Amino acid sequence: MKTLAAALLLSCGLLSAGHAQQGSAIDTMPSAQIVEQAGSLHPSALYVLASRLLAEGKGPEAANWMYAGQLRYRFLLAVPKAQADDRILFAALTEQVGRPVNEYIAGDPDEWIAGRWTGTRRTKTTSPPRPGMRPNWPRCGAGWTG
């Protein structure tokens, strides 16, 4: 529990300057508001939400949001001009939030697979699979191949 709290504080402290200028204080924002604004918030906000949900005992929902945040972060970091702070924050969040969520959800592989797909659909960052497509998780962490 202390690790989750530390990750939450770390993620709030390392949020990019653009979010600080917008006045979005993720650490004081209610979880329901993060859910409502998920499409416009920095991917780290989804990790904060996942951390809160896991602490509340809502593991499957935490996995959904953590995987959605992870996918959005991977897109963000794929840009050649990605900021070093974002890379550092992603690494810290992956270790401090991602590890406990993965440990929880990996206890039931069927639930894990369902959580990964639900998380990607929830933020509409990818298109739904077309007939004949198969999951491509082992190679790139998320997505579909056809």
Description:
Residues 1-20 form the signal peptide. Helix 1 (2-13) packs antiparallel against helix 6. By secondary structure, this protein is mostly helical. Mean pLDDT is 74; it is low at 7-12, 14-23, 119-128 and 136-146. The protein is globular, with a radius of gyration of 15 Å. It is built from eight helices and two strands; from the N terminus they run H-H-H-H-H-H-H-E-H-E.
SSE layout and pairing:
Elements: H1 2-13, H2 17-22, H3 31-36, H4 43-55, H5 59-78, H6 84-105, H7 109-122, E1 134-135, H8 137-140, E2 144-145
Antiparallel strand pairs: 1-2
Helix pairs in contact: 1-4, 1-6, 4-5, 4-6, 5-6, 5-7
Describe what is shown at a glance:
The protein has helices at 2-13, 17-22, 31-36, 43-55, 59-78, 84-105, 109-122, 137-140, and strands at 134-135, 144-145.
Keywords:
about 150 residues, mainly alpha, two-stranded antiparallel ribbon, 8 helices
Helical segment tally? 8
Unreliable parts: 7-12, 14-23, 119-128, 136-146
Strand line-up across the major sheet: 1-2
What's the main sheet like? 2 strands, antiparallel
The amount of helix comes to 55-70%
What is the residue-averaged pLDDT?
74
| Assembly status | single chain
| Overall morphology | globular
Number of DSSP strands? 2
Output the radius of gyration: 15 Å
* Strand-residue proportion: under 5%
Distance between the termini: 41 Å
Q: State the secondary-structure class.
A: mainly alpha
Query: How many domains is the backbone divided into?
Result: 1
Order of helices and strands: HHHHHHHEHE
